[in-house]
Amino acid sequence: MKGNALDFSFSGLKTAVLRWVESHPMEAEIARRKAYTQTNPRPSTAEWLELTPQPTRDLIASFQRTVIEELLTRSEAAAEQMAARSWVVSGGVACNAGLRDAARSARLPYPVFFPTPALSTDNAAMIAAAAFPKFHRRDFSSFSLKAQAGLTLA
Q: End-to-end distance of the chain based on CA atoms, in angstroms?
């Protein structure tokens, strides 16, 4: 990212993956997986691997490796800048086994803490939980509501 070495946005990486997908004929592969999950809604890892060609698996693995490397590099830089004594990884990403393994073996100068996978909920789930009482009260906002990072959820 230009300007802020600690920016955790991955929009450029996601765009690169999108461009790769757009440049490769994947319709048949995707259709096979969709058809398979219609009759087998919870495929095993072995079944997913059998349904997914090697180039797609390589793309997925490369994406994960790159994101993990960037998260560790930027987190370490942020921790050094702030003189942090520990690092807490939360949200849906905290459930990623690759990130957990990489953080534990990174020999960082501080401990890294992860919640249990059951408590590693995605932000969307947290927003839904916060919104449920408003929904129950039928307290709805109009469509003119603008995105606000600090919007009160109560």
A: 34
